[in-house]
């Protein structure tokens, strides 16, 4: 079941037509402030990023490494809440049509109201959502978590997912499949994981939607190598780390743009 | 206000997906799903395997010290002037608390799963000590995650874990107590899931943990039921136990759930009173939510961010309650009250002085509830209170708070 054509699907169709792979960038919404996030996303777009994942902060991000935990802390301390993040997206939409995926945990969504979240996030201009601690199994078993068509539901597949799970997750995938390239929490790694190409091929055997690979990518060489094995690559902690260091600087958005551009170029050159 | 059980038996919980009514479930990242499914399957096999059960029971008897006595606290009963009070003496178990029932069971499961590395979280340190103990017993590699604040208030248990060969990792994130230790243990598990088993220490987290931890602690209630029938030729009128995640209480309560005449009270940590961030009583101002793998009742703000908690006892200082308790609360089968820090400390002092038994600060919350309810009950009535742990670990903290003295280890 796929959502009605939205910015994510359109972007992947355009990339496919031009034979390019996607560059997906993650930043924590509200780090250092929600206003700064608007500028940072615009900087990412100027750098050529195809899709932006915006982290909606949660107090207990158990799938995240220390870089993203600290970013969530900073965002919460700076006052980020679900309604304020959605308002920020509304403002961003005046200036940009870049596809946006909200990346978060279930409790903030559940507390806001699962259906209400879908309606309001879509109305604000979000295109997809990835809830890290909501496996597809629970969606089926909880009537209050019923699938809602307003947003694409991005699913994770892990190196530990057995073949029958891969098949069932991939079959119902929307937007793109996020293949977590290695076991562990989010965060930059020196070495990229092995076996990515094989796993991506297995996933692609069960789905028409694109497969993007993330977790641990931090430089142009890694980005190009990972993207070459899939339909796209996700880079997160390396960007978040740059924001951590330079959040107070007035040109943080330009610094992010300068850092991300060579990574995007390396991926788009493939 | 007495919750009365209906004559209809309660449905068997959880369902095959780990749901207790609308609570429970498996709310975890995809990386952990296959390990949890594998654990569920292996647990079901072990449960049905007489060799596993025989080995578990033998070790519970010879190594852990089961069965524990059911002790009639005569002087305390006389002092309170009401119901006859029996203490289920889990404090007499090896390592000093009920936690080892579950740690032993899960260590045997890890061996069946072929996992040689064990991780665990701990609050008061009792689960950490129990886990480190069984790891030493079976030669398993052991890493314990503990909040830095808890390490300071439970220094004795930190030293015990180190003697037992465990690596104790200080967690400094957030308020540096039990919740943060669980986050860090989950992160380790996500990273090392292929060769590591996570011995979760309470009836919390993703399925199958709430069910499995409960089952390993049911022995408490099974023994108590048999013992009270021998002593009194009747079932108790009331069961009382403290509830952090809720492992000792579910262990005591579960075998009595379908005995309609048995009233049950779970006692949460009231901390400094029911004010935001000053307590850990989830049924006092909590809400429905999802934390660390399970849907349950928890303390969070309007934005879904988990709130700070406070309790004098590290083992009860946690923002979520086990999902089966949330369900039993909905079913009106168990009542949930709370005791404040002050009431727990008074109970700690009273039981020590009157019975010569120093209770853990966690168990002292249950003792505090008994002090409130026993005098209102008839002398022919019977209470069983779970003395889930001994108070040695709390002596320095209690001395500081009661005698205003510093004791250094």
From TrEMBL, chain A:
This is Tryptophan synthase alpha chain. Its EC number is 4.2.1.20. SUPFAM superfamilies: Ribulose-phoshate binding barrel (SSF51366). The active site is at 53 (proton acceptor), 64 (proton acceptor). Keywords: Amino-acid biosynthesis, Aromatic amino acid biosynthesis, Lyase, Tryptophan biosynthesis. PANTHER family: TRYPTOPHAN SYNTHASE ALPHA CHAIN, CHLOROPLASTIC, TRYPTOPHAN SYNTHASE, ALPHA CHAIN. PROSITE patterns: TRP_SYNTHASE_ALPHA (PS00167). It comes from Brevifollis gellanilyticus. It comes from the Bacteria. Belongs to the TrpA family. It catalyses: (1S,2R)-1-C-(indol-3-yl)glycerol 3-phosphate + L-serine = D-glyceraldehyde 3-phosphate + L-tryptophan + H2O. HAMAP family: Trp_synth_alpha (MF_00131). Pathway: Amino-acid biosynthesis; L-tryptophan biosynthesis; L-tryptophan from chorismate: step 5/5. The keyword Lyase applies. The keyword Lyase applies. Tetramer of two alpha and two beta chains. GO terms for molecular function: tryptophan synthase activity. GO terms for cellular component: cytosol. The lineage of its organism: Bacteria, Pseudomonadati, Verrucomicrobiota, Verrucomicrobiia, Verrucomicrobiales. The alpha subunit is responsible for the aldol cleavage of indoleglycerol phosphate to indole and glyceraldehyde 3-phosphate.
TrEMBL record, chain B:
Keywords: Amino-acid biosynthesis, Aromatic amino acid biosynthesis, Lyase, Pyridoxal phosphate, Tryptophan biosynthesis. The beta subunit is responsible for the synthesis of L-tryptophan from indole and L-serine. Tetramer of two alpha and two beta chains. GO terms for molecular function: tryptophan synthase activity. The modification N6-(pyridoxal phosphate)lysine is found at residue 99. It comes from Brevifollis gellanilyticus. GO terms for cellular component: cytoplasm. It catalyses: (1S,2R)-1-C-(indol-3-yl)glycerol 3-phosphate + L-serine = D-glyceraldehyde 3-phosphate + L-tryptophan + H2O. InterPro entries: Trp_synth_b_CS, Trp_synth_beta, Trp_synth_beta/beta-like, TrpB-like_PALP, TrpB-like_PALP_sf. NCBIfam families: trpB (TIGR00263). Belongs to the TrpB family. It is an enzyme of class 4 (lyase). Its cofactor is pyridoxal 5'-phosphate. Pathway: Amino-acid biosynthesis; L-tryptophan biosynthesis; L-tryptophan from chorismate: step 5/5. Its EC number is 4.2.1.20. This is Tryptophan synthase beta chain. Residues 65-389 form the Tryptophan synthase beta chain-like PALP domain. SUPFAM superfamilies: Tryptophan synthase beta subunit-like PLP-dependent enzymes.
């Amino acid at each position: 079941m796929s959502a009605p054509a939205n910015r994510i699907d359109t972007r992947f169709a355009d990339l496919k037509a031009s034979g390019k792979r996607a560059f997906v960038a993650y930043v924590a919404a509200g780090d250092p402030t929600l206003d700064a996030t608007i500028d940072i996303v615009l900087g990412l777009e100027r750098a050529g990023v195809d899709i932006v994942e915006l982290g909606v902060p949660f107090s207990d991000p158990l799938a995240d490494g220390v870089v993203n935990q600290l970013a969530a802390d900073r965002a919460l301390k700076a006052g980020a809440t679900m309604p304020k993040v959605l308002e920020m997206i509304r403002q961003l939409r005046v200036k940009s049509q870049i596809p946006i995926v909200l990346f978060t945990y279930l409790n903030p969504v559940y507390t806001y109201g699962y259906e209400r979240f879908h309606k309001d996030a879509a109305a604000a201009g979000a295109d997809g959502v990835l809830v890290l601690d909501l496996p597809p199994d629970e969606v089926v078993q909880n009537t209050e978590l019923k699938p809602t068509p307003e947003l694409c539901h991005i699913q994770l597949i892990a190196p530990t997912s057995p073949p029958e799970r891969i098949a069932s997750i991939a079959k119902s995938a929307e937007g793109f499949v996020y293949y977590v390239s290695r076991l562990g929490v989010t965060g930059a790694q020196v070495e990229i994981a092995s076996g990515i190409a094989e796993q991506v091929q297995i996933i692609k055997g069960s789905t028409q939607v694109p497969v993007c690979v993330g977790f641990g990518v931090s430089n142009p060489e890694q980005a190009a190598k990972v993207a070459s094995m899939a339909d796209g690559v996700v880079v997160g902690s390396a960007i978040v780390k740059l924001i951590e260091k330079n959040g107070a600087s007035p040109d943080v958005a330009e610094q992010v743009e300068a850092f991300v551009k060579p990574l995007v170029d390396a991926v788009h050159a493939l | 206000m007495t919750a009365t059980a209906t004559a209809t038996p309660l449905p068997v919980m959880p369902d095959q997906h780990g749901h207790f009514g609308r609570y429970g479930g498996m709310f975890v990242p995809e990386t952990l799903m296959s390990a949890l499914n594998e654990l569920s399957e292996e647990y079901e096999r072990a449960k049905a395997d007489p060799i596993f059960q025989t080995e578990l029971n033998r070790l519970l008897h010879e190594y852990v010290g089961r069965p524990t006595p059911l002790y009639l606290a005569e002087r305390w009963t006389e002092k309170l002037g009401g119901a006859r009070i029996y203490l289920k003496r889990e404090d007499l178990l090896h390592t000093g608390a009920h936690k080892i029932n579950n740690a032993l069971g899960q260590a045997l499961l890890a061996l069946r799963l072929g996992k040689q590395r064990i991780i665990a979280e701990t609050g008061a340190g009792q689960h950490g000590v129990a886990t480190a103990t069984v790891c030493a017993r079976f030669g398993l590699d052991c890493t314990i995650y503990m909040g830095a604040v808890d390490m300071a208030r439970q220094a004795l248990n930190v030293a015990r874990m180190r003697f037992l060969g465990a690596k104790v990792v200080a967690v400094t994130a957030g308020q540096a107590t039990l919740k943060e230790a669980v986050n860090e243990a989950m992160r380790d598990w996500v990273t090392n899931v292929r060769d590591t088993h996570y011995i979760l220490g309470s009836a919390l987290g993703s399925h199958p943990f709430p069910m499995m931890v409960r089952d390993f602690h049911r022995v408490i209630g099974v023994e108590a039921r048999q013992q009270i029938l021998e002593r009194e030729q009747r079932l108790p009128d009331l069961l009382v136990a403290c509830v952090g995640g809720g492992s000792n209480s579910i262990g005591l309560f579960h075998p009595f759930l379908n005995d309609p005449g048995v009233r049950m009270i779970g006692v949460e940590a009231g901390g400094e009173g029911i004010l935001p961030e000053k307590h850990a009583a989830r049924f006092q101002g909590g809400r429905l939510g999802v934390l660390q793998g399970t849907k349950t009742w928890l303390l969070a703000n309007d934005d879904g961010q988990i709130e700070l908690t406070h309790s004098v006892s590290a083992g009860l200082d946690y923002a979520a309650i086990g999902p089966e308790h949330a369900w039993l609360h909905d079913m009106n089968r168990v009542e949930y009250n709370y005791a404040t820090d002050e009431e727990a400390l008074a109970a700690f002092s009273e039981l020590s002085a009157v019975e010569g038994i120093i209770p853990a600060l966690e168990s002292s919350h249950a003792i505090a509830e008994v002090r409130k309810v026993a005098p209102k009950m008839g002398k022919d009535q019977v209470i069983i209170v779970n003395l889930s742990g001994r108070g040695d670990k709390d002596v320095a903290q209690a001395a500081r708070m009661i005698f205003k003295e510093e004791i250094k280890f």
